[in-house]
Design a protein that fits this description.
This protein has a single domain, classed as Up-down Bundle (Rhopdopsin 7-helix transmembrane proteins), CATH 1.20.1070. Helices cover 72% and strands 3% of the residues. It contains eleven helices and three strands. It has helices at 26-56, 63-80, 83-88, 99-132, 137-140, 143-168, 187-192, 199-232, 237-265, 274-298, 301-318; strands spanning 16-19, 97-98, 177-180. It has a three-stranded mixed β-sheet. α4 packs antiparallel against α6 (143-168), α4 (99-132) runs antiparallel to α9 (237-265) and α6 (143-168) runs antiparallel to α8.
Length: 320
């Protein structure tokens, strides 16, 4: 497969895409713009705060917080591939995006989203080792292994998503202007616009979806079966509470991320609705990246203490 030219294959003319507007009401457009902008700023601030706290506090330099800071960085990149373009299209006339631009957005969006899913599975393994094998935790979860796991997650996502995106954009798209019933160049809505048989492409999408969503989710479930069994054997009620508190934060993010993505990418095409897909996509574009810092800070004593310490030291330095 010749990757550099995949965007232009089978194209009779320059195809451009436009995103369907959320609403034609100027008042609603203004409200949606402010809402999405506020959520985006909160996502940037919350996830940046986690990265900053982990990097500036030595007692947080453990595998769990290393993975958490990488997850926050992914969330920032993930939303940034979508939201700025989305905000620019809320007002006024529909602004076209060229075929190459659509392909680039799809590639980065699905790659970062897939890396996110793999990283959540890695975080579940980290909790499994910490709770089920506490005496060997530092020997198993070395800095080298943690780095290899993060790089491996990104590498696997790049490999799968590059092939998927290249395959989709070998399809012909009839006409000069194509309207996508979505706010981004996601895989399912773009496939619906192809004027050719997409059965093979749908099959590849399901295979990639199983590898990215189903397999990591099963690994997470297996990890939590062992974790729950171990926690129930802890005699101290306080020990059980702390273990469950740490794991419940991660599990909340997992269920929201995998649940919403599965509804979009793994449902049979006959049972999917374009409007439903767009609504669900709003959840994993805005809600999940926003809940990540909220859940991990509000339910994590170490992160809360680090934030309080940073704020108190800043206040003290500003006091004359």
């Amino acid at each position: 497969m010749v990757l550099p030219n995949f965007i232009h294959l089978n194209q009779s003319g320059p195809t451009e895409f436009v995103f369907r507007m959320f609403t034609s009401s100027p008042r609603m457009q203004a409200l949606l713009f402010l809402l999405f902008l506020l959520l985006y700023v909160m996502i940037l601030c919350g996830n940046t705060a986690i990265i900053w706290v982990v990097c500036t506090h030595t007692f947080l330099r453990t595998p769990m917080y290393f993975f958490l800071s990488n997850l926050s960085f992914l969330e920032i990149c993930y939303t940034t591939t979508v939201v700025p373009l989305m905000l620019s299209n809320i007002f006024g006339a529909q602004k076209p995006i060229p075929l190459a631009g659509c392909g680039a957005q799809m590639f980065f969006f699905v790659t970062l989203g897939s890396t996110d899913c793999f990283l959540l599975a890695v975080m579940a393994y980290d909790r499994h080792v910490a709770i089920c094998h506490p005496l060997h935790y530092t020997l198993i979860m070395t800095q080298k292994l943690c780095t290899q796991m993060v790089v491996g997650s990104l590498g696997l996502a790049l490999f799968l998503c590059l092939q998927l995106t290249a395959l989709i954009f070998t399809l012909p798209f009839c006409g000069h202007h194509q309207e996508i019933n979505h706010f981004l160049c996601d895989v399912p809505p773009v496939l619906r616009l192809a004027c050719a048989d997409t059965q093979v492409h749908q099959a590849v999408l399901y295979v990639v979806g199983i590898l990215v969503l189903t397999v990591p989710f099963l690994l997470i479930c297996i990890s939590y079966v062992f974790i729950t069994t171990t926690i129930l054997r802890i005699r101290s009620a306080e020990g059980r509470r702390r273990a469950f508190s740490t794991c419940s934060s991660h599990l909340t993010v997992v269920l929201l991320q995998y649940g919403c993505c599965s509804l979009v990418y793994l449902r049979p095409r006959s049972s999917t609705s374009e409007d439903e897909d767009r609504q669900i996509a709003l959840v994993y574009t805005f809600v999940t990246p926003l809940l990540n810092p909220l859940i991990y800070t509000l339910r994590n004593k170490d992160v809360k203490d680090a934030l309080k310490k940073s704020m108190s030291s800043k206040a003290a330095s500003e006091t004359p």
